[in-house]
Amino acid sequence: MKARLAAVFCLLAIGTSGGVTRISAHGGEDHGDQKPKTETTAKGAVLRTTRLGDFEVTVKHSPLEPGTIAHGSLFVTRYDTNEPVDAGTVQVVFEGAGGSISDVAVEKSATAGTYTLDMPALTDGEYTLRVTLTAGGKTSTTIFSGVEVRNDAPAAGAATSWSGFLLAAMFLIVGIGLFAALVYLSVRVAGRRPLGEETLSA
Q1: Long-range contacts of 178-187 (CB under 8 A, 24+ apart)
Q2: Contacts of 113 (CB under 8 A, 6+ apart)
Q3: Listed range (66-75, 101-110, 128-137, 193-202) with the worst mean pLDDT
Q4: What does DSSP assign to residue 28?
Q5: Is 179 exposed, middle or buried, given 0-12, 13-18 or 19+ CB atoms closer than 10 A?
Q6: Is residue 96 packed enough to be buried (19+ CB in 10 Å), middle (13-18) or exposed (0-12)?
Q7: Phi, psi angle pair for 83, to nearest 5°
């Protein structure tokens, strides 16, 4: 009986730890430097970064809500040295699912490689943010897809991290509960066995 209980507990422990490991691995995936990355700062601002040839382009803005003008900044640096770069021309637009184009007002700031953005009031939906740079006589374009305009839009990655935490906690609670039940049954079985043997011998 004890051997069976031990085997069940081992299988339970392996299954529980396996589930938690899969959650951590998924959350820590590395998609490489070539693809755009999106994150949320501690103050709730959205930060989008990507490589564009020899440059790195970063767009920082407040959360986008329907019918609300948003303000942001655009930073252009050299990818290898992180040195600020003043591009000759910078154009930024939002492209809607139906092909509609909404221009973003771009203004060069006094700081090298830094531009201010005034984003128009957009309707609810998903957009592509398109950034076009002209530097050294060469024009390049990068896009940030999946830009959501929602009321109280969740921070990037927050929903995934929270659901992963809840799932891991659920596995842990279930594992502890089953282990406690097995220990309780094991104690009861061990406590009853001498009584049964004494009754038979009498």
Answers
A1: 178/12, 179/9, 179/12, 182/5, 182/8, 182/9, 185/5, 186/1, 186/2, 186/5
A2: 75, 76, 77, 83, 84, 85, 86, 87
A3: 193-202
A4: T
A5: middle
A6: middle
A7: -80, 130
Q: Which amino acid is at 24?
A: S
pLDDT level of residue 34 (50, 70, 90 thresholds)? low
- Determine the Cα–Cα distance for residues 126 and 10; give it in Å rounded to an integer: 47
| CA-closest candidate to residue 23, choices 142, 170, 138 | 170
Here the tokens at position 172 are 């842990």
The partner residues of 141 in beta bridges, in order of sequence, read 132
Distance from C-alpha of 21 to C-alpha of 182, rounded to nearest angstrom:
24
- CB neighbour class for 98 (10 Å; exposed up to 12, middle 13-18, buried from 19): exposed
List pLDDT tens digits, range 122-177: 999 999 999 999 887 889 999 999 999 988 644 444 444 556 667 777 878 988 87
